[in-house]
Design brief:
Elements lengths: L2 H81 L2 H9 L3 H14 L4 E8 L4 E6 L11 E8 L2 E12 L5 E10 L1 H8 L9 E8 L2 E5 L11 E4 L4 H8 L5 E6 L5 E9 L4 E8 H4 L1 H44 L17 H47 L3 E5 L5 E4 L1 H7 L3 H4 L4 H4 L2 E3 L2 E2 L6 H8 L3 E2 L6 E4 L5 E13 L2 E11 L1 H36 L9 H31 L8 E4 H16 L5 E5 L6 E4 L1 H18 L5 E8 L3 E8 L20 H6 L7 H11 L3 E7 L3 E9 L2
Helix pairs in contact: 1-7, 13-14, 14-18, 15-16, 16-18
Length: 736
């Protein structure tokens, strides 16, 4: 598949993604809107229906109270009216025909449809004068007319109205009692058809600690009283019974149901009346509304799916066409035609895209010519750089940060004896095995890897003899310089430059051979001259020498000794260079060795009045080394320190030890070493300018020999110096 087709497919997938996101967004908005509106509608409807139910209950309980109160007041008024009739008073005053009067009144009441069940007349002492129907017992009361409800096994069975009978002067001389049946009234009181199956009217009275609930629910004769005691529901009726209040609320019924209830106090009876309905039935309309909303929401959501699909496709179709046209653009295909005519921002974007395409076509054509020119220029520059690199006689190797060879020139291939195809992408430690004084350098101390890891340059010291192993196995002496390639603080790799120093090493070897040969040849005649001079200076034969002769012999003796010392130093250096001296290692107590050297140093500086300070730690300090060679190093350093430190100066020796190495510091307050001479101080026969002014007899071999000895002992010798202030040499020995 070509890249153009790939871009087209991506554009189609992107357009589908836009369409899908648009549809999902619209559907999500529809679902959220429908859910929020439905939830709000449900909550509002439930709240309104709850309020309406409570208002209906309040209205019903008020109407029930009115019915009960009107009936009771009517019965009281009827009783009071009958007590004021003349025949009743006459029957009491004359005590004649009282039974006939009562019977007549009872029959009249029944004919009038009054639900009376008993009529009794009492005198002032409470004695029954006449009675008809259900007998009534006398009742003591302070009211002119009083009402006493009757509650039996059938619930509220009726009530008795007691009314006083007075004469014309207002004196009470009897009581008329009427007993009424309440059954016909209960039918109208307890009827609540508008509340549904769970609607119920409750009448309650309080007797001591017990609440009697007349609920009239379960039978045609209205059931029996329900004695609640301290039952929980009594707290609702208690609002009417005790606090004589009225109200509507949500509560729990005597049967443990969740209900809406309205309650009131009946002052005529001293009872409470409540109208209740179970909450789930009162809110039946809300549940039906919820199901209706669910069905309506499903229909709306289905319509929203269809509308979202159509609308999303309509909105994204111009974008899809633009995406497909843009996906076709590329090198050689810069033709773009407008395809959107919506008259809005999309059409403006389509036209802007057409204009941008034309400009891209012009820019691309110009860039192609520029890139071709730049590419040609880079190619020419690469050829030049490659020619220069191949023409360099020094070997050049480039390595990456992970130590892999990325480039090598022809000279480097010749020195290593390996072709470029064999070494590229290979590890530098495998291709370029570096040796130091014929000993292979460990991978961790490889100079090129060190430069890559640390980011610092590595420059060969003329006294450090680097070698690399040729492909045929022999060692090639080299001078090596490694420079890290940096981009700011970031290390990109390293470049190593090295060249074959076989000729220089050969010349240096010939010099050493010449010096060794010359020294050997000069040693015998110089010893003979020394012997004859000593013979002339002795007076064993009785010959006396003149002062001038003794002076000449003394000068000859001094010059001969100087020549002998020089020859000895040259022979020693030659032996070290030729590795003729092999260290004889043994366990050495460095503390004892330094103490002995300190005593020797004190004897050397005694005549020049130079102070000598020795600092040695208490802990044990031992290592495996050659004490004789180490003594030679100390002698060379002591000799220089005493020679170049003026009178009243100060010398100090300090010993330090850690887990890995032992360090010995030799400090003086002498003339110091000039900065320009410090880098060459370990070269053979080299002396600093200020040293030649102080001592003209030096030969420049002491530090050279000391450096070679320390390398043969796997140690090191370094120094720090400041001209005119002194020098500090540091001898470092590994712990073995």
């Amino acid at each position: 598949m070509c890249p153009q087709d790939t871009h087209t497919n991506k554009a189609i997938k992107a357009s589908r993604s836009i369409l899908q996101r648009t549809m999902v967004s619209m559907l999500l908005l529809s679902v959220i809107s429908i859910f929020v509106l439905s939830s709000i509608s449900y909550v509002i409807a439930r709240s309104q229906l709850s309020k309406r139910s409570l208002a209906q209950l309040s209205s019903l309980v008020a109407s029930k109270e009115e019915v009960i109160e009107n009936r009771l007041n009517t019965d009281r008024e009827r009783a009071a009216l009958m007590a004021s009739r003349e025949e009743v008073r006459s029957a009491l005053l004359r005590s004649q025909n009282a039974q006939g009067v009562i019977d007549t009144l009872f029959i009249q009441l029944l004919r009038q449809g009054v639900p009376v069940t008993g009529l009794t007349l009492f005198d002032s002492s409470g004695q029954t004068l006449a009675s008809v129907g259900v007998p009534v017992s006398p009742e003591k009361t302070t009211a002119a007319t009083s009402l006493m409800p009757i509650v039996g096994t059938r619930g509220w069975e009726g009530h008795i109205v007691y009314t006083e009978v007075r004469d014309n002067n207002g004196k009470v001389f009897g009581v008329l009692a009427l007993r009424y049946e309440i059954g016909d009234m209960l039918e109208s009181i307890l009827a609540v058809p508008t509340l549904g199956d769970t609607g119920e009217v409750l009448i309650a009275r309080q007797q001591g600690e017990q609440t009697t609930l007349l609920h009239y629910k379960d039978s045609l004769d209205y059931g029996k009283p329900l004695y609640l005691g301290q039952f929980r529901f009594a707290s609702v009726i208690a609002q009417a019974l005790h606090k004589k209040e009225e109200g509507v609320r949500r509560a729990e019924s005597y049967a443990g149901k969740d209900i809406f209830v309205a309650y009131r106090y009946l002052p005529t009876l001293g009872w409470g009346v409540a109208v209740q309905v179970e909450r789930h039935e009162a809110l039946t309309g809300v549940r039906m509304l919820a199901w209706s909303l669910f069905g309506l929401s499903f229909i709306i959501l289905s319509l929203a799916v269809i509308l979202s699909s159509v609308l999303a496709k309509y909105l994204t179709e111009p974008i899809v066409r633009m995406s497909r046209n843009i996906a076709k653009l590329g090198p050689g295909k810069w033709q773009y035609e407008t395809s959107v005519h919506t008259g809005d921002e999309l059409e403006l974007l389509d036209r802007s895209t057409e204009d941008l395409t034309k400009r891209l076509s012009t820019l691309y054509t110009h860039m192609e010519s520029e890139i071709a020119a730049q590419t040609e220029q880079i190619a020419q520059q690469y050829k030049k750089d490659r020619t220069i690199l191949e023409s360099i006689q020094h070997g050049v190797v480039l390595v990456s940060t992970d130590g892999l060879i990325t480039e090598i020139n022809k000279a480097g291939q010749e020195i290593l004896g390996k072709a470029s195809q064999d070494v590229l992408a290979s590890n530098i430690t495998d291709v370029m095995q570096v040796h130091l004084h014929s000993t292979i350098v460990p991978v961790a101390r490889h100079p090129i890897l060190h430069a890559v890891e640390v980011g610092s340059s590595v420059v060969s010291d003329p006294q450090v003899r680097w070698s690399v192993r040729h492909n045929d196995g022999h060692l090639v002496p080299i001078m090596l310089t490694v420079t890290p390639i940096l981009e700011g603080d970031k290390i990109l790799g390293a470049v190593a430059v090295f060249y074959d120093t076989t000729d220089e090493r050969r010349i240096d070897y010939l010099k050493s051979e010449f010096i060794s040969l010359a020294s050997h040849q000069l040693r015998t005649p110089l010893s003979s001259m020394q012997w004859y001079i000593e013979l002339f200076q002795s007076d064993d034969d009785g010959t006396e020498l003149t002062a001038i002769q003794e002076e000449y012999l003394a000068e000859m003796d001094m010059a001969t000794k100087r020549m002998i010392n020089l020859v000895e130093a040259l022979l020693r250096a030659a032996r070290l260079e030729g590795e003729a001296i092999t260290p004889d290692a043994e366990m050495v107590d460095i503390k004892t060795l330094v103490n002995d050297m300190g005593s020797e140093l004190r004897s050397m500086v005694k005549d020049k009045k130079i102070g000598c300070k020795l600092t040695i730690p208490d802990e044990k300090c031992e290592t495996s080394t050659d004490p004789v060679l180490l003594h030679i190093v100390f002698q060379n350093l002591f000799s220089n320190a005493v020679k170049y430190t003026p009178e009243n100066g100060e010398l100090a020796i300090k010993l330090e030890s850690n887990a890995h190495a032992i360090k010995i510091y030799m400090s003086d307050t002498g003339i110091g070493i000039p900065a320009q001479d410090q880098k060459r101080m370990f070269e053979k026969l080299y002396r600093a300018d200020n040293a030649t002014q102080v001592d003209t007899d030096g030969n420049g071999l002491g530090l050279y020999i000391s450096k070679m000895i320390m390398e043969s002992l796997d140690g090191d010798i370094t120094f720090t110096s400041q001209e005119g202030k002194g020098t500090t040499f540091v001898i470092e020995l590994p712990k073995k």
